[in-house]
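Working notes for the structural subgroup meeting. M.R. asked for a predicted model of this chain before we commit to crystallization trials. I am recording the input and output together here so anyone reviewing the notebook later can reproduce the run.

Input as submitted:
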Amino acid sequence: MSKGYDRVAIVTGANSGIGKATAVALAEQGFDVGITFHTDEKSAEDSADLVKGMGKAAAVRRHDLTDPEGAAYVVDELAEELGGLGVLVNNAGTGTAEPVLDMDYRRWRDVLAVDLDGPFLCAQRAARRMVDSGRGGRIINVTSVHEEFPKVGAGPYCAAKGGLRMFSRVLALELAEYGITVNTVAPGEIATPMTGQEDRPPQMGSRPGYPIARAGDAREVAAVLAFLAGPAASYITGATLFVDGGLGLMGPQAGGALDSGEWRHG
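Returned structure, recorded in C-alpha cell form:
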C-alpha cells in the first residue's frame, strides 16, 4: 500500500491508559494526534501536552459513545482541525461485572453502544475520508482477549469485542482496494485505571498464573498499535495481534488446575 497516507491520527479514549500511551507513540512516529475523552478533560489535555511537547499538533474533543451517532461527528471535526486523517485507533471502551441473569437491557445496550456501535460509526466516517483522499490509511480497533475467550460477568463486553473482531475482518476485505488496512489489537490484563490499577509498570510475579507473570504495561500495547499504524505493517490486514503475555494460552491449562468452583462467581 502507499506510504503517503495523512500523518494525522485520531485515538479515541486517549486521556489515560492505552489510549494515552498510543497518542504519545504515534507522535513519536511523526503524527499529529486527535485525542478524545468522555469525562476527564484535564487528563485529555495532559495527553495533548505530551504530543505537543514532541513538536506535533494535538486537538481534543469530548466523545460520549453512549450516543454513538452524535459522537461519531468528532472524527470529522478532528480531521478538519488537523488537516487530514491517515490513522484511526478505536480505543475507547467500557465493560461490566454483572451476570447476564441480573442485567437489564439498558445496561446491555449501553455497553454495545460504546464498544461496538461507536467503533463502527467512527470507522465508517474515517474510512470515507481515507477513500476520498485516495491516499489510503489505517484503522485499528482495540478489542481484548475477550474477543475470543469468554469471561463470567462480561456478557455484553465479550459480545461487543467478538463482534468488533468480525466487523474489522469484513472491513479489511471491503477497504483493501483503497489502500486501507484494518486490524485489531487484543490486550490481556493491562495495568491501567480501567482495570482498577495504577498507570505504572507492573511488578513481575504479581500474576503467577500467567505465562509472563505480570499484568501488561500500556506502552507495550501502544507499541503494537504504533507498528500497525506505520509503513512496516503495510501487508497486514484482517489480523488480530494479541498482547496478553500468553494469557490466552492458559485457558484449558488453567481450567484443569483449578481446585474450586469459585470462578463461577467472577
